[in-house]
C-alpha cells in the first residue's frame, strides 16, 4: 500500500545540482518526524550516505529509504550507547529532535535533556558539524515558552566544541504541517472566524520545500558552519492575512471577528476541537502568536541563494499535494507522548487480557476487501454507526486526546506508523492484515486486528479486538463497551464487505 517504496526526492530543488560530498555519514535525527522525513530522501537523491535516526525501528523505514542506514536511538536514554552508535563515523548531524507532543509543561525539560545527551555523544564521536533547525522569534522581546525553549536547545548544542549551524524558521507551510492544517480546517469549517487580537501580529511563513532547500544548502556551503541564520518565505503577513489569503484561494467568503477578551488558551482549545491538531500542539502554536515571527536578517541568501516562495504559492502547492493524495510526511508521524502507547501487540509479555472476535464470510476477492478496509476513517468515516465513532472521538478530544478528527495522511498509500483517526497502523500486509493500535485516552491498551483468510472458495473477513485493561477502571471500561462493540464491529465488517 505504501506510496513510499523508493527514496526518490519529493522536494525538487533549484539548488546547485552537484553537492560537495565529503567522506562520512550525514545523520538525520528525528527522521520519523515532519521535517526529517522529507530531508532524508532529498539527501539520498543528492548522493549522500545517509543515516536516519528513529526512536523505534519499523520495516516501513527500510522500505521508504532503501539506501539509507537506519539507527535506532532515544536521546533521552541515559546509557547513551545507542546514541553513540548512531553517531559513529558521522561527519554532519542534522538535529531535528523535538517533543512538542509532550505539551507545554513537559517538552522543555525533555528537549534540553536530549540536546545535552546529543552534544556529549557527538563530541565523543568527533562529529565535525551539527545543523539545527529551530524557531524564529525576535530575541529582544519576551518569547513564548516554546520559542524560548527552541533557542535554549540551540544554546545547549553550542556549549560543546562542535560548530553548530542554526537555522531559525517560523510557520512552516506544507501539506501535512500542523500550522497549515489548523488554518486550513478553520477556513473550511467556519463561516465566521473568531480571532484573538494577537492575530494582528506579523509572521513570515515559509514553504516546507524551501526549508529543505536551506537545510541541504547549509550542508553544502561550508562557510555556513557555526553560523546562525533566519529563514523565511517571500511574504510578511499578519496571521489574519494568512487566513484571508487561504479563504480567497479556497474561494470561501469568511467573516473575521476579533474577540480581544478571550485568552489564547481558549482559542487553542477551540482550535483543537475544530481541527485535526490536538491540544498540546495548538497550545504551543497559539502561544507563538505573542511574538512577531519575522526574519531579523537575510544573510542566508548570500550562501544559499534562491527566491523562496510567496505564502500563496506555498498554500497552493500544499492544497495540490492533498488533492493528489501525495502528502509525504505529516505532523502526526511523530509518536504521541506516552511511549507506553507505542508498545506493540507482539511485545506484550502476557498478551492482552480481553479479546472479542467478529467475522463474516464472503465471495468477494481479498484485494477488494482489503481496498475497502483501508478506506476507513478520515473523511470517509467509519461507514456504519459513524456518529458513534465521532462521538467517541469528540470525548477523546475533550479529554485532551487525539480524537477521530486527527484524520489520516493518505488514502491511497497507507504506511505502517500512519495514523487513522485515533488509531496508528502497527502492521499492514496487503490483502491479508491491518493491525491498528489505539492512541485514544483509555484505561488500558487496545488494538483492532482485521484479517482476510481464504476458506475454500470464499474469504473470511475478521475483526479481533484486543484489550489490555489497566486496573478496575480498565476492566469496567471493557465490560461497559462490550454490548456496543457487538453491533459496532459487526456493522463495520458488513459495511467493509458491502463497499468492497
Ligand atoms: N514543523 C514546523 O512547523 C516547524 C516550524 C519551525 C521550526 N521547526 C523546527 O524543526 C525541527 C523539526 O520539527 P518537526 O516538525 O519535524 O518535528 P516532529 O515532526 O515533531 O519530529 C520530531 C522528531 O523528534 C523525535 N524525537 C523526539 N524526542 C526524541 C528523543 N528523545 N530521541 C529520539 N528522537 C526523538 C521524534 O521521534 P518520534 O517519532 O519517535 O516521536 C520525531 O520524529 C524542530 O526543531 C522544530 O522546532 C518546525
What is this structure, in a nutshell?
The protein is α/β, with parallel strands linked by helices and 500 residues long.
Any overview of this molecule?
By secondary structure, the protein is α/β, with parallel strands linked by helices. It folds into two domains: 25-333, Rossmann fold, CATH 3.40.50; 339-499, START domain (Alpha-D-Glucose-1,6-Bisphosphate, Chain A, domain 4). Helices cover 36% and strands 20% of the residues. The protein contains 15 helices and 19 strands. The strands form five sheets. The protein has a seven-stranded parallel β-sheet with strand order 3-2-1-4-5-6-11, with helices on both faces. Strand 15 and strand 16 form a beta hairpin. The two termini are 16 Å apart. NADP nicotinamide-adenine-dinucleotide phosphate (NAP) binds next to strand 5 and helix 6.
Please state how the strands of the largest beta sheet are arranged side by side: 3-2-1-4-5-6-11
Uncertain regions spanning at least 5 consecutive residues: 1-8
Average the pLDDT over all residues and give the rounded result.
Answer: 90
Summarize the biggest pleated sheet. Answer: 7 strands, parallel
Task: Characterize the overall form.
Answer: globular
Radius of gyration: 23 Å
Per DSSP, the total helix count is 15
CATH architecture field of the largest domain: 3-Layer(aba) Sandwich
Strand count: 19
CATH topology group of the largest domain: Rossmann fold
Q: What are the distinct ligands in this entry?
A: NADP nicotinamide-adenine-dinucleotide phosphate
CATH superfamily heading of the largest domain: NAD(P)-binding Rossmann-like Domain
Amino acid at each position: 500500500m505504501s506510496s513510499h517504496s523508493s527514496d526518490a526526492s519529493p522536494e525538487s530543488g533549484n539548488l546547485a545540482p552537484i553537492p560537495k560530498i565529503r567522506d562520512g555519514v550525514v545523520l538525520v535525527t528525528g527522521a520519523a518526524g515532519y521535517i526529517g522525513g522529507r530531508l532524508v530522501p532529498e539527501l539520498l537523491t543528492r548522493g549522500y550516505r545517509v543515516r536516519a535516526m528513529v526512536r523505534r525501528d519499523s520495516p516501513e523505514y527500510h522500505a521508504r529509504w532503501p539506501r539509507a542506514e537506519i539507527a535506532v536511538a532515544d536521546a533521552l536514554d541515559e546509557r547513551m550507547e545507542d546514541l553513540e552508535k548512531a553517531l559513529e563515523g558521522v561527519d554532519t548531524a542534522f538535529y531535528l529532535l523535538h517533543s512538542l507532543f509532550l505539551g507545554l509543561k513537559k517538552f522543555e525539560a525533555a528537549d534540553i535533556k536530549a540536546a545535552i545527551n546529543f552534544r556529549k555523544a557527538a563530541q565523543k564521536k568527533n562529529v565535525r558539524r551539527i545543523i539545527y533547525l529551530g524557531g524564529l522569534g525576535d530575541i529582544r522581546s519576551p518569547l513564548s515558552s516554546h520559542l524560548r525553549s527552541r533557542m535554549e536547545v540551540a544554546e545547549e548544542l553550542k556549549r560543546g566544541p562542535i560548530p553548530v549551524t542554526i537555522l531559525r524558521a517560523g510557520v512552516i507551510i506544507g501539506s501535512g504541517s500542523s500550522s497549515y492544517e489548523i488554518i486550513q480546517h478553520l477556513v473550511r469549517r467556519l463561516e465566521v472566524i473568531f480571532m484573538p487580537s494577537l492575530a494582528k501580529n506579523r509572521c513570515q511563513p515559509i514553504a516546507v520545500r524551501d526549508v529543505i532547500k536551506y537545510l541541504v544548502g547549509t550542508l553544502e556551503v561550508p562557510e555556513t558552519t557555526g553560523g546562525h541564520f533566519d529563514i523565511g518565505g517571500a511574504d510578511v503577513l499578519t496571521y489574519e492575512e494568512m487566513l484571508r489569503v487561504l479563504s480567497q484561494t479556497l474561494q470561501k467568503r469568511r467573516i473575521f471577528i476579533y474577540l480581544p477578551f478571550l485568552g489564547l488558551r481558549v482559542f487553542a482549545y477551540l482550535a483543537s476541537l475544530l481541527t485535526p491538531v490536538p491540544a498540546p500542539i495548538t497550545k504551543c502554536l497559539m502561544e507563538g502568536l505573542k511574538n512577531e515571527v519575522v526574519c531579523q536578517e537575510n544573510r542566508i541568501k548570500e550562501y544559499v541563494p534562491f527566491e523562496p516562495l510567496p505564502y500563496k504559492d506555498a498554500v497552493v502547492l500544499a492544497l495540490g499535494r492533498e488533492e493528489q493524495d501525495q502528502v509525504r510526511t505529516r505532523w502526526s508521524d511523530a509518536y504521541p507522548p506516552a511511549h507506553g502507547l507505542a508498545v506493540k501487540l507482539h511485545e506484550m509479555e502476557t498478551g492482552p487480557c480481553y479479546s472479542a472476535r467478529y467475522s463474516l464470510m464472503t465471495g468477494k476477492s481479498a484485494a477488494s476487501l482489503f481496498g475497502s478496509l483501508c478506506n476507513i476513517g478520515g473523511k470517509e468515516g467509519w461507514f456504519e454507526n459513524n456518529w458513534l465513532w465521532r462521538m467517541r472521538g469528540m470525548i477523546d478530544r475533550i479529554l485532551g486526546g487525539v480524537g477521530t478528527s486527527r484524520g489520516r495522511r493518505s488514502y491511497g498509500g497507507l504506511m505502517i506508523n500512519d495514523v487513522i483517526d485515533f488509531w496508528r497502523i502497527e502492521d499492514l500486509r496487503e490483502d491479508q492484515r491491518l493491525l491498528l493500535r489505539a492512541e485514544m485516552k483509555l484505561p488500558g491498551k487496545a488494538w483492532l486486528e482485521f484479517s482476510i483468510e481464504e476458506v475454500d472458495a470464499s474469504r473470511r473477513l475478521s475483526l479481533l479486538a484486543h484489550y489490555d485493561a489497566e486496573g478496575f477502571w480498565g476492566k469496567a471500561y471493557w465490560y461497559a463497551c462490550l454490548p456496543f462493540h457487538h453491533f459496532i464491529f459487526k456493522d463495520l465488517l458488513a459495511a467493509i464487505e458491502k463497499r468492497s
